[in-house]
Specification:
Oligomer: single chain
Bound molecules: zinc ion
Structural class: alpha+beta
Strand order of the largest sheet: 2-1-3
Order of helices and strands: EEEHH
Length: about 60
């Protein structure tokens, strides 16, 4: 399943830096820059977040 940025709806690329919020929405860091820090669960490249939170990848099947 392709995951899109919750803000600009562009497809996320492995090397994109993304922010994960508490609703499991992913945004580019530059799209989510105004997120309240309390809502931010994690920050990293999309690749790293995907590997860390496997539920993103397992919905494919
Ligand atoms: Zn974006």
């Amino acid at each position: 399943m392709a995951i899109r940025c919750g803000d600009c709806y562009s497809l996320l690329e492995d090397q994109d830096h993304v922010v994960l919020d508490e609703f499991n929405t992913l945004r580019h860091t530059y799209c989510g820059y105004d997120l309240v820090s309390e809502l931010v669960q994690d920050v990293g490249t999309y690749k790293n977040i995907k590997e860390k939170y496997q539920f993103f990848g397992e919905e494919v099947k």
